[in-house]
Amino acid sequence: MGDLSKELLKAGLISEKQFRQTQHQERVKKTEVGHEGLDREAEAKRAADDRRREEQRRKDQARVREEQAAVQVEVTRARLKDLIRGGAVRAGASGNRKFYFVTPAGRIPYLEVNEEAARALQHGDLAIVRVPDMKLERHVLLPERLAVQVHAVAPELVVLFRGKNAPGAIFSDRPA
Hints:
The chain is mainly α. It is built from four helices and five strands, in the order H-H-E-E-H-E-E-H-E. It has helices at residues 2-11, 16-87, 115-123, 144-153, and strands spanning 97-100, 110-113, 126-130, 139-143, 158-160. A hairpin with an 8-residue loop joins strand 3 (126-130) and strand 4. The longest helix has 72 residues, at 16-87. The relative contact order is 0.09.
């Protein structure tokens, strides 16, 4: 504290009288607690500093883990988007039949499909999957094996799926 008091005095932030009072208080405290007391205070201060550093280290590690998790989510989402776009069935995606389905939000959109794609949807060979983060094409047809993969990563994207390998009741044309 003596060094800080000198610096404050030099900077003109405290008066000479305040400087002398501070010096006197330090001498009195040293006399009252002795060397052992000062050592205990210094040790307590070091322990508090160590605890504060450890807590900061934990916070930093938690922040890094959260950032890594966010990056992983984005990478997974991009891979999923590529899987859906690359595996989308285009042959039956346009036709003369409107295939209606119910979204989890309760909307009832439709896809125009041909007869073959409609039968494949009814038998579970195809599934309707929502494409994440797309503006124009909201739903696409996916083969059964890709629909199972998409469901494993993001079950909320699979809107309709009645396949043999369809796990769970989420794969129906009724909202869950």
